[in-house]
Write a structure and sequence with these properties.
alpha/beta; six-stranded parallel β-sheet; two-stranded antiparallel ribbon
């Protein structure tokens, strides 16, 4: 099957057909949730044996890519970049290339589970705590019994040895899962996927940060309207201040200043090119 797949609401969709914008030299795609899930489904259906990678992040991942050339290279090699937060969407509008919406990891997982419920696709969950994984499996068994869970593993909260990581990859491959969801936090989860992608036999690997806990309802998530308004960070800061304060109160303002400058330069360059072509 071709990379394009028929989306229930939008017709054929492929990564190449999506709106996109470059922020700090990183190509950010603009799928709707339906489109993103349809693309993942198309990866599952392809017979080429290749594992594809999707990155799901907002300003945090873009800021790390801006600061770290190696992570910037890694992000550029991913097959799909979904804007988890509202910041990339706002910046796309400033650049004159508006993305339609944010695609949070929690909502993307749920949308995929709806499709898996009908098609029987299977998932493997790698990351977070055992209690979170147990709650996540319980929710799927209750709400999406047709969305099979091929396995789940909570790795130790330290850097695994090469032998341990090889054993983890072997277990994932042996599970026969269609999709691997990785919840190790950013950038660790995306680095893990990129490092192991050549030997992963599953069809898609997706880093979703704290989405395991949000889907499992072990950590309360912000209402959708609050996230769409751009204030999900306030909710998360209040809920997890020790975890979020540095990202939101230190990296956040630095990102805003740098990203606005980058957007204004791109806008001036586009206007200048347009003027010269007249």
């Amino acid at each position: 099957m071709d990379d394009a797949m028929r989306d229930a609401t939008s017709g054929p969709v492929s990564v190449e057909s999506l709106p996109c914008v470059e922020i700090f030299g990183v190509k950010v795609h603009g799928p709707t949730l339906d489109q993103a899930a349809a693309i993942i489904e198309s990866w599952i259906e392809r017979p080429d044996g290749r594992c594809r990678q999707a990155i799901v992040t907002g300003f945090h991942g873009l800021w790390i890519a801006h600061e770290d050339p190696e992570f910037h290279r890694l992000v550029g090699q991913a097959d799909l970049f979904c804007p988890d937060g509202i910041a990339p969407v706002w910046l796309s509008r400033l650049r004159g290339r508006p993305l339609p919406q944010r695609t949070p990891g929690r909502e993307l997982m749920v949308e995929f589970f709806r499709r898996a419920q009908a098609k029987g696709y299977s998932s493997y969950f790698y990351g977070d705590k055992v209690a979170t994984l147990d709650a996540l499996r319980a929710r799927l068994a209750n709400e999406f019994p047709g969305a099979r869970v091929a396995g789940a593993f909570s790795p130790p909260f330290r850097t695994p040895s090469d032998d341990e990581e090889s054993a983890h990859v072997a277990a994932i491959n042996a599970s026969g899962a269609d999709v691997l969801w990785v919840g190790l936090g950013l950038p660790k989860q995306d680095q893990w996927i990129a490092r192991n992608r050549p030997r992963l036999k599953i069809k898609a690997a997706i880093g979703v940060g704290a989405a395991f806990a949000f889907v499992a309802d072990t950590v309360p998530h912000a209402p959708k309207w609050l996230g769409d308004a751009g204030f999900e960070w306030v909710w998360r800061l209040a809920a997890e201040p020790k975890k979020m304060w540095r990202r939101d109160l230190t990296d956040g303002p630095r990102f805003v200043v740098a990203a606005l400058g980058d957007a204004m330069r791109a806008r001036r360059a586009r206007l200048s090119a347009s003027t010269k072509s007249e």
